[in-house]
Each structure stands twice: as structure tokens, then as C-alpha cells.
Design brief:
By secondary structure, the protein is α/β, with parallel strands linked by helices. It is built from 16 helices and 9 strands. A 9-stranded mixed sheet has the order 6-5-4-3-2-1-7-8-9, with helices on both faces. The N terminus is likely disordered. Bound molecules: iron/sulfur cluster (2 copies).
């Protein structure tokens, strides 16, 4: 499945607090980034009646606490199957698809039992909904590991399976939020062409509509998103697709990832002109703002503003990191935490720090004891090699997002700054 943007941001209160903290700083003591941020925020907030803060000291403490996350494992991307019923030209996982060797349910159960608590589980693949016991796997990770956010990327080809998995997960676990990321890689026939399946477009749209009753039933606990991989085949129609989905579908968001990794058709699919990319990011950043305004429409003006800083700022930071890394390597403005806060488990039990690096361990060598593998020396060697992201080059938004969540600079400066500068590309 195309890997998808997750859209959980830091608390909106964090962003609101940033403004207040910047305002409180004497000019002489502010760092250059904070001075710049204060200017931006001050300008942007002039139109808003800032509401009163009952206790600034307490809120400041809360703000600072909320931005400090311990760097420990919190997100797992679990490839539950290598089976897939699409043939995407953009797929970086194509060499691993439709192979024998998916972990058995019992093996996955042992992985879950030996894994520490986590908050976020990505059910990935292949096409994860093709795994017949997907619901039981979800149930296991919620019960054993305390998962609170489930993210499922899907091609939406088998709508009955998608519906069943969503309904079972949300119906069985009232404390669970589910982010369903449905792939659409072009308008109409372009989507069919990129995905290598005639009629894919209609089936995917049908799948989205099938989920409306679930959306009505579960409200905000189900986030219905579309993810689009931008490539040489579709960059000319990104706006057309974005407007079509905005006008005709009841989505929570649409996200755009630039094609990455070694694809099925080689580098030809990556030939997107730089000026088109600039235009595209400008468009998708403003589209994100529209989605934010719609999503937070019931909030009062000031709250909507604060939530938009968190949401739009986070997504725009993803886009900025992608944009800066499309043609050449540019270090993210915060460390990559792959292998520390996030792990990838392949369908066959191989474990990697991220989806673009080689395995550093295999669960079979540890009798599927995840804790033992995670504590072994191989992971530390891999972390040394990654060097906080200095040693690699990628545009992978799942890892950009998770790394952001563990960086105060990203939460307190990059996100708000990118919100305020979202129109400049
Ligand atoms: S072929 Fe397409 S749907 Fe299947 S895993 Fe690859 S990107 Fe995902
Ligand atoms: S920077 Fe990218 S390639 Fe390198 S470890 Fe992080 S996610 Fe993986």
C-alpha cells in the first residue's frame, strides 16, 4: 500500500501557547527563530480577539510538558501480509509483494505479547484488508499493547473487507480512533493506469461512499482520508483531483506524498518538474487549510485558529521536508527518530528502523520475542548508522511526522512557522 500521511498533530493548546510564550519574551532575550515567529504570529493574530488565559504560569508549564515526549517506542508499522491486489507503478515494496511467508497469527500474537505498550499501530502491507484475521490482530494489539490510534492504508478495492474491519475495530474498542487512508493516485483513468487495475477508480470511490454510514456512526473516531502519491503520471492533475474530492466527497483530509524508493518502473515515474512541484505544494497547502477550516468549523474562531496552527502547520511541515528532499538531500530541521520511537515489522518478521532501510533483525531469530530483538545490539548499531537522520535521505512522511512529535523545536517553531508561511513556496 502506498504509505500514507498520518494526521495527528500536537495539541492545539501547544500552538496557542507558543504565541503567548513569544509575546512574553523580552525582545532582547528572544532567539532569532523565536523573534521571527513572534513577528509572524503577531501579524497573523491581529484579526483575532485573543481570549483570556486564566493562569498563564500553569498553561506555560502545561505547554512545555506537552511538548516533551520521552523517546521510546510508540508507533509500530506492521505489514500484516505481502499479498496485494493492485500493481502500482509507484510501489517501492513491489519486490516483496505476493510472496509466501506471512507471519502466522500465533507468531504475531507472540510479537504483541512481548512488545511494550505503544500508542499507534499502522496495519500495512501489501493490502492489509486481504489478511483474513486482520480484525483479530487489531483486537490483540489494542488489548495487549494499549493501542489508541489505528492507521490503515488501503487501496479500497474490496469495500466489504474495509467496512468490516473498520466497523469491528471501532465497535469493539470505544477508546480507539481509526485513520483510514484510502489511496487515489490520479483522476479517473490515470488512477487505473498508475495502479494497474481497470476500474480501480470507480471501486475506490465506491468504497469511500460505503464508509459514510460508519462515519456517521463513529463521528470523529473515524477519520476518512485520501492519500495521493504524486508522480510523473499524475502531477498535472493534482488540482483537478483535489477539487473533485473536495467538492464531491465527505472526507476529513487529502494528503499528498511524493513518489519514493525503488519503484516498479524505475526512475521514469519520478520525473516531476521542479516548478510544477512548487505549484503543487502551494496548492495542497491551501487545500489542507480548507480541510482544517471544515474540520474545525464548529469551534469558535480563536479555537479554530489554534487547531489550524497545529493541523495545517504539521502537514505543511511534512510538505516542506518532502519538497526540500525531492531533488537533493536536505537534513530535516529536527532529528529522525526511526528505530527509537517507531519500528517497522515486515510481513515475514524482519524488523527495520524505517521502510527505506534494510532489516537490522529478524524476529524468527528471537523466537518472535520483540522485546528481546529490540534490546539487542543490532538496533543500537542501526541507530548509530542512521545518526539521527544525518546519514540518509528521504521524504517519508510517517517518519517525518513521528520525528516531529519528539522534537520541541518542530512543535514550537517549525509547525507554527510553516502554518504562517504556507502560501510561500
Ligand atoms: S502495489 Fe500499490 S496497493 Fe499494493 S502495496 Fe504497493 S503501493 Fe500498496
Ligand atoms: S531519515 Fe528517512 S531513511 Fe533515514 S532513517 Fe529516517 S526515515 Fe529512514
Amino acid at each position: 500500500m502506498s504509505r500514507i500521511l498520518c494526521r495527528r498533530g500536537s495539541s492545539p493548546d501547544v500552538r496557542e501557547g507558543v504565541y503567548r510564550r513569544c509575546q512574553a519574551l523580552p525582545h532582547g532575550r528572544a532567539t532569532a527563530p523565536l523573534r521571527r515567529l513572534r513577528e509572524l504570529l503577531t501579524n497573523d493574530l491581529r484579526a483575532i480577539h485573543v481570549y483570556t488565559m486564566p493562569n498563564k504560569a500553569i498553561q506555560l508549564v502545561q505547554l512545555l510538558r506537552s511538548t516533551k515526549r520521552v523517546k521510546r517506542l510508540g508507533t509500530v508499522i506492521l505489514f500484516v501480509t505481502s499479498r496485494c491486489n493492485s500493481f502500482c507503478r509507484t510501489c517501492f515494496y513491489h519486490e516483496e509483494l505476493n510472496r509466501p511467508g506471512d507471519m502466522t497469527f500465533d507468531q504475531i500474537a507472540r510479537v504483541s505479547l512481548t512488545m511494550p505498550p505503544i500508542t499507534d499501530l499502522w496495519l500495512s502491507g501489501g493490502e492489509p484488508t486481504l489478511r483474513h484475521d486482520a480484525s483479530a490482530i487489531i483486537d490483540m494489539f489494542v488489548r495487549n499493547n494499549g493501542v489508541r490510534r489505528l492507521i490503515i492504508p488501503t487501496n479500497g478495492l474490496v469495500k466489504a473487507r474495509v467496512y468490516e474491519i473498520v466497523d469491528t475495530a471501532l465497535g469493539s474498542h470505544p477508546e480507539l480512533d481509526l485513520y483510514l487512508n484510502i489511496a487515489l493516485d490520479g483522476y479517473g483513468e490515470t488512477h487505473d493506469h498508475v495502479r494497474g487495475v481497470p476500474g480501480h477508480w470507480e471501486k475506490t470511490l465506491d468504497c469511500i461512499r460505503t464508509l459514510y454510514p460508519s462515519k456517521a456512526k463513529y463521528g470523529d473516531r473515524l477519520r476518512l482520508n485520501v492519500n495521493t502519491v504524486v508522480c510523473a503520471d499524475n502531477y498535472r492533475e493534482i488540482e483537478k483531483l483535489g477539487e473533485f474530492m473536495w467538492e464531491n466527497f465527505n472526507l476529513d483530509g487529502q494528503y499528498f506524498n511524493i513518489v519514493r524508493g525503488e519503484t516498479l518502473v524505475g526512475d521514469e515515474i519520478k520525473q516531476v518538474p521542479a516548478d510544477s512541484l512548487t505549484q503543487m505544494y502551494s496548492y495542497v497547502a491551501q487545500l489542507t487549510k480548507r480541510y482544517g477550516d471544515r474540520m474545525f468549523a464548529d469551534d469558535d474562531r480563536a479555537k479554530r485558529f489554534a487547531k489550524n496552527i497545529a493541523y495545517v502547520g504539521t502537514i505543511t511541515t511534512h510538505y516542506r521536508a518532502q519538497h526540500a528532499n525531492f531533488a537533493r538531500s536536505t537534513a530535516w530541521p529536527f532529528p529522525c527518530t526511526a528505530g527509537e520511537t517507531i519500528a517497522v515489522i515486515d510481513y515475514n518478521g524482519d524488523v527495520r528502523a524505517c521502510e527505506l532501510r534494510e532489516k537490522f533483525g529478524t524476529l524468527a531469530d528471537y523466537d518472535y520475542d520483540f522485546g528481546a530483538l529490540w534490546a539487542a545490539e543490532g538496533r543500537q548499531t542501526e541507530l548509530n548508522a542512521i545518526d539521527g537522520g544525518q546519514a540518509c535521505w528521504c521524504t517519508h512522511v510517517c517518519f517525518i511526522h513521528d520525528s516531529m512529535r519528539h522534537s520541541r523545536k518542530a512543535l514550537l517553531y517549525e509547525g507554527p512557522k510553516n502554518y504562517l508561511t504556507r502560501e510561500k513556496w
